[in-house]
Design brief:
The protein has 411 residues and is α/β, with parallel strands linked by helices. It has 2 domains: 127 residues, Aspartate Aminotransferase, domain 1 (Alpha-Beta Complex), CATH 3.90.1150; 243 residues, 3-Layer(aba) Sandwich (Aspartate Aminotransferase, domain 2). It is 47% helix and 14% strand. It contains 14 helices and 14 strands. The strands form 4 sheets. Strands 2-10-9-8-5-3-4 form a 7-stranded mixed β-sheet, with helices on both faces. The protein has a 3-stranded antiparallel β-sheet with strand order 11-14-13, with helices on one face. Strand 3, helix 5 and strand 4 form a beta-alpha-beta unit. Helix 11 runs antiparallel to helix 14 and helix 12 packs across helix 13. The longest helix is centred in the N-terminal third of the chain and has 28 residues. The protein is globular and about 75 Å long. The protein starts with a helix and ends with a helix. Bound molecules: pyridoxal-5'-phosphate. Pyridoxal-5'-phosphate (PLP) binds next to helix 4. The site of pyridoxal-5'-phosphate (PLP) has 13 residues, from helix 4.
């Protein structure tokens, strides 16, 4: 009897110690394996399940007709994405490598290039050409402001021999869009400078027409609007850019775009391509073709608009004067501490957003809506934002942001 009772007791104790606390934790603080992770950062962006499954299939060989067939389709669909008949070259690197390829392939030491610096990425396109011995002229714009026609014109007048103007279509650090269409026209009409575009968060979010707008080089990366993991850069080149490659004297080997172009003509690559990622981008581009690029631009505009209406309805302030459709930066409201805010958002709701950079660290946060997002993603983001702000003590009426976004979607 005693032995039996002891056994019962131990059994009960076991239940209490092992099972109960575990279950309680699940119920009380929402932590545990069931917390759904939601990525709202402007690169990497979420990868659709169908694409992940494709990339998990056994690897194929790149010098085999199977790959050639796939890469032929990728190249055709990349031309569609960039709205061009020109070559779009695929490099095994992140977006930065793609931009580096434009500098080392189009210019020679001492050449002047004009670069718009309105944030972290624009700043990079001033530093990078300097590292290669180019004379980089900087047009500095305040963070959150787009470059004006006057700024570009005066730089072109001051540097009539400039070989190129570099524009950042969507400056991710500030969520600011540049009017590439008008500025490209202006540059073309007033100079012989090549129009080079960092389209890394713009491609797949903003209207972009490489041929029609007279762009000479445009770069994007795989982990942005293309919805696949990082590791690929895509570089579209005009005939003028191809011509510039013939006289460029800067050293290059792996990123020699003449080699890439030669291989591209045979739907091939000069080096071992990042096969799994190319399989991924093939699947992504098929999704893009099915939805239609114009519909994708419209979807991004709609999601961005609804999110912003929601944010304004909460009494929060938007950061940019010329908002990008890829990412929305917001001022951290007074009385809210960014670190605590971010901790709750991530720990309790599984949401990863981006903080501010440089002078804006802790002052702004950035919510991405680039790539694989829909209307309910924006509503749930706003819902988490509201609950987090409430917990941080920020005063507003619960539901105000969500319903403002819902009204946009319902209209
Ligand atoms: C992400 C990003 C880059 C850098 O690309 P990496 O893939 O990180 O090298 C450059 N420009 C813009 C606008 C970006 O958003």
């Amino acid at each position: 009897m005693v032995a039996y009772l002891r056994l019962r007791f131990l059994h009960l104790l076991h239940r209490c110690v092992i099972f109960l606390p575990k279950r309680c934790t699940l119920l009380i603080d929402h932590k545990g394996p069931q917390l759904k992770k939601r990525l709202f950062t402007p690169g990497p962006t979420p990868v659709p399940e169908s694409i992940m499954l494709k990339m998990a299939e056994p690897i194929i060989h790149h010098r085999h007709p199977e790959f050639t067939e796939l890469f032929t389709r990728v190249n055709e669909n990349l031309r569609y994405l960039f709205q061009t008949q020109q070559p779009v070259l695929t490099l095994a690197s992140s977006g930065t490598g793609g931009v580096e390829a434009t500098f080392v392939n189009l210019f020679s030491q001492g050449d002047t290039v004009i670069s718009v610096n309105g944030g972290k990425f624009g700043e990079r396109w001033v530093k990078m050409p300097r590292a290669f011995g180019l004379n980089a002229v900087e047009i500095k714009t305040e963070w959150g402001k787009a470059p004006t026609a006057d700024q570009i014109l005066s730089a072109l007048r001051q540097y009539p021999d400039a070989k190129a103007v570099y524009l950042v279509h969507s400056e991710t650090s500030t969520g600011t869009a540049t009017d590439v269409k008008s500025l490209a026209k202006l540059i073309r009409e007033n100079s012989n400078a090549l129009v080079c575009v960092d389209g890394i968060t713009a491609i797949g979010a903003h209207e972009f027409r490489f041929d029609e707008w007279g762009i000479d080089a445009c770069v994007t990366g795989s982990q942005k609007g293309l919805m696949i993991p990082p590791g690929l850069a895509f570089v579209a080149v005009s005939n003028r850019a191809i011509k510039a490659m013939e006289t460029s004297k800067l050293p290059k080997f792996y990123f020699d775009l003449r080699k890439a172009l030669k291989s591209y003509e045979k739907n091939d690559t000069p080096w071992t391509p990042a096969i799994s990622l190319i399989i991924g981008v093939d699947a992504a581009l098929q999704l893009i073709r099915t939805e239609g690029i114009e519909n994708i631009w419209r979807r991004h505009q709609r999601l961005a608009t609804a999110l912003r209406e929601g944010i304004k309805a909460l009494g929060l302030r938007l950061f940019s004067d010329s908002p990008s459709y890829a990412v929305t930066p917001v001022w951290v409201p007074e009385g809210v501490e960014w670190k605590q805010f971010n901790k709750i958002l991530k720990g309790k709701y599984g949401i990863t957003i981006a903080g501010g950079q440089d002078d804006y660290t802790g002052k702004i946060f950035r919510i991405s809506h680039l790539g694989y997002y829909d209307e309910l993603d924006m509503v749930s983001m706003l819902s988490a934002l509201e609950m987090t702000l409430k917990e941080c003590g920020y005063p507003f009426e619960l539901g105000a942001g969500m319903s403002a976004a819902q009204r946009v979607f319902a209209s």
